[in-house]
Design brief:
The protein is of the alpha+beta class and 367 residues long. Helices cover 32% and strands 32% of the residues. The protein folds into three domains: 2-110, Aminopeptidase, CATH 3.40.630; 133-275, Aminopeptidase, CATH 3.40.630.30; 285-354, no CATH class. Strands 1, 2, 3, 4, 5, 8 and 16 form a seven-stranded mixed sheet that branches. Strands 7, 9, 10, 11 and 13 form a five-stranded antiparallel sheet that branches. The mean pLDDT is 96.
Length: 367
């Protein structure tokens, strides 16, 4: 047995067969088609495998991206496509691969992992649910009431790329995408393990929003894999979008930064449900992450209080200290303190005024 190590280029076909067998049996090439950002020669170093007699038998994959949280840049590893052939399970192969992935990510300067699954394999080292997002369920009555003159929806074209990228870059918490992420969406029309279509919103011919919507001709309720844009234009486009797709309801995932859109939904009586962010999060380098996000703390309170807020870790104990409150917790607790959780109360005192930070939503970066 050879591993854990990065997959070799000439082993990609064997890796594809493993991934398809575990996740999409009978659909040859499906996994590589759905996740071109993960399964490509340029990312082979981040596809960690065990190989037995020339055959890839176990895999843990990750992509690494910069991300922007309220203007602060952090490094994130997205983990997914974790799979092992049935006959090789029970040998701890995935555990060893995941440990190797964590070690590699730390060396690469990654602050935390976002993991698309939920297994003991990930929970054991401290991965946990985090985030406070809102799910909005919008019916035809609301959508029809928001229509505005001059609003049109259209299929995404290559010349729309600059405007759509600029709209995405306005989000408070987002992945910093290399060009290939957008080009893969355009070339493969796949995201979130689904066939998708990117719809551009224009007002009087100017691009002012977009939606990434699952491709379906039979369902009357769907969600948006991703969206961005000017709130009034997005709301006004929902009616035309429902007309175009034959929908009676659309579901939008709102992040903390969608405060204006959420406020308008609340005003108009749209159903909103608080819930955690998708995936689970594993802190890797707490001190580095806190240092990178420090400007958010300084922006949320005065200079004197910010100076006396100390977030530290020693021997597995994570401490959150302010002039009027203190919390000592473990790694999962620290992740929830940093990024919040819908089932947990706000932190006490000044800590509760500067935390939680916004969380990332996968959108088209899901693996």
């Amino acid at each position: 047995m050879d591993g854990p190590r990065s997959v070799c280029i000439d082993e990609m076909a064997s890796l594809a067969k493993l991934a398809d067998t575990v996740f999409m049996k009978g659909r040859e090439g499906a996994m590589f088609g759905h996740f071109p950002g993960l399964f490509n020669a340029g990312n082979a170093r981040n596809c960690l495998v065990f190989v037995d007699k020339g055959r890839v038998v176990s895999h843990v994959g990750m992509t690494q991206r910069w991300a922007c949280i309220e203007g602060c840049t952090v490094r994130v590893a997205c983990v997914g496509a974790v799979c092992t052939y049935d006959e090789y399970r029970g040998q701890g192969l995935a555990t060893q691969l995941f440990e190797a992935a964590r070690e590699q990510a730390v060396v690469d300067g990654v602050d935390f992992m976002l993991i698309s699954g939920d297994r003991t394999l990930y929970r054991r080292p401290g991965a946990t649910d985090v985030g406070v997002d809102w799910t909005a369920r919008i019916g035809r009555a609301h959508a029809d009431g928001w229509r505005l003159p001059g609003i049109e929806i259209d299929a995404f074209r290559r010349e729309d790329f600059g405007a759509c990228r600029a709209l995405h870059e306005q989000r408070a918490a987002r992945f910093v995408r290399p060009l290939d992420d957008w080009l893969n969406l355009l070339a493969f029309s796949r995201a979130d393990c689904r066939e998708v279509r990117m719809i551009v919103v224009r007002r009087h011919g100017v691009v002012c929003g977009y939606f990434v919507i699952p491709e379906t001709t039979i369902e009357t309720v769907t969600d948006a894999v991703e969206f961005a844009g000017e709130p009034f234009a997005l709301m006004a486009a929902l009616g035309p979008l429902m007309d175009n797709r034959g929908l009676r309801e659309i579901i939008l995932r709102l992040q903390q930064g969608d405060a204006v859109l959420r406020g308008m939904f609340e005003r108009d009586g749209v159903s909103l449900e608080r819930e955690k962010t998708g995936g689970i999060l594993l802190l890797l380098n707490f001190a580095q992450l806190v240092a990178r996000l420090r400007p958010i703390i300084e922006a949320r309170t005065n200079a004197d209080k910010a100076e006396r807020i100390v977030l530290s870790e020693n021997d597995g104990v994570f401490r959150f200290q302010s002039p009027d409150a203190e919390l000592a917790t473990d790694r999962p607790g620290a992740a929830r303190a940093l990024f919040g959780h819908p089932d947990e109360a706000s932190l006490p005192g000044t800590l509760g005024t500067v935390l939680p930070f916004p969380t990332l939503w996968y959108g088209i970066n899901y693996i």
